[in-house]
């Protein structure tokens, strides 16, 4: 079979050699189908196809980027020349730095998925049932967001050092966010799932969980200002993870933006807290057998029993900072090189939800950060002050829903105050897998 991308890249590699430079190509292709029903009618039927190639050119310590959606030889050569010129333009700012390197070829295990064809009528049935199942439940007024999507594609990295690696993927996602109403009170809750297997989409389980989450928020009380023991639900602790995951990046350390600088080997969290990045978990959306430079992926423990173990690196920052190379290069074909996690996992604890809420006389369970991550988080200090909704428990018994409060603290201090982990994990739809997390005390501003 003719491999036009490889043939064109070999010509670009030859040109790069003539210009005393190195070149790397990141190629992605994808096909996505999105289906959604509203008021029992097909509201969304969207099919999107894309392909894009991003070139990175290294000239000594300098690098430049360009991308193209046209994969013809002439377009790729134009992109190379643009990236080469960008690298030359950046040469002055990189002067005095060590010359950059490309990843060298290594053997790796790549599992190719068996692409499964699912009839379009089966997909429509799922999308329709995500709405209709919710609407059939008591107190559900409407379903503002519900839908099904299928995606498949491929990622490929080639470089002038000899790397040529590729993997393919196929996955499905489904979600439902119903609006519950009781008298004057209206609240929305939801549930989402991502999976590699179409048969894993259990519509009744998704909609039952979504309806439960919406209805339990109804008729909330206003929470009184004070300090409370706090359970952050497994779905919402993903927001907490997103707050601090950037601190693990060696690039942020180098730029003076990480609060973890100089803390390797220190206790930065509760002894019961462990955090692992596992890009090799094929069941999670962040699966990748190699990173954006073509380096073989590996499982990396970031925090073990509260102890900070390592920063994550791409090749540039591994060499620049004399750190282990953890294969965490991250970029899109249209973006520049950075460092990022894939699938982050907090192992489950041994306590049930009922055991967690019974540990303190009063416990607030945060079920939603209503403003999202950027509503009140300061990455520079780790301080957060975020609007949220939840449930109030007293002596292990549910009092009711609470809202109109702001929860505040410091993310690194909160990690040290973890005193309990639930025995069940969320479904990992976001690539962040974790249990319910009990924190000894957080500050709440309410009534």
Q: With helices defined by DSSP (H or I, 4 residues minimum), what is the helix count?
A: 10
Major sheet, described briefly? 7 strands, antiparallel
Given the C-alpha coordinates, what overall shape results? globular
Question: Could you report the average pLDDT, rounded to the nearest whole number?
Answer: 95
CA radius of gyration is 24 Å
Q: Specify the structural class.
A: alpha+beta
Structure in words:
The structure is a single chain. With 447 residues, this protein is an alpha+beta fold. Among the domains are: 120-150 and 167-215, 2-Layer Sandwich (PmbA/TldD fold), CATH 3.30.2290; 221-241 and 347-445, no CATH class. It contains 10 helices and 22 strands. Strands 1, 2, 3, 4, 5, 6 and 7 form a 7-stranded antiparallel β-sheet that branches. Strand 13 and strand 14 form a beta hairpin. Helix 1 runs parallel beside helix 2 (73-89). The model has no long low-confidence stretch (mean pLDDT 95).
Describe this protein with a few key phrases:
single chain, 447 residues, alpha+beta, PmbA/TldD fold, 39% strand
Ordered list of secondary-structure elements with their pairings:
Blueprint lengths: L3 H15 L3 E17 L2 E19 L2 E7 L4 H17 L1 H4 L25 H16 L4 E20 L4 E19 L2 E4 L2 E5 L7 H13 L5 E2 L3 E7 L1 H11 L5 H5 L20 E3 L22 E5 L2 E2 L6 H7 L7 E2 L7 E2 L4 E2 L7 H5 L4 E8 L7 E2 L4 E12 L2 E14 H6 L1 E8 L6 E2 L1 E11 L2
Parallel strand pairs: 8-19, 9-16, 15-21
Antiparallel strand pairs: 1-2, 1-4, 2-3, 4-5, 5-6, 5-7, 9-22, 10-11, 10-15, 11-12, 13-14, 16-18, 17-18, 18-19, 19-22, 20-22
Helix pairs in contact: 1-2, 4-5
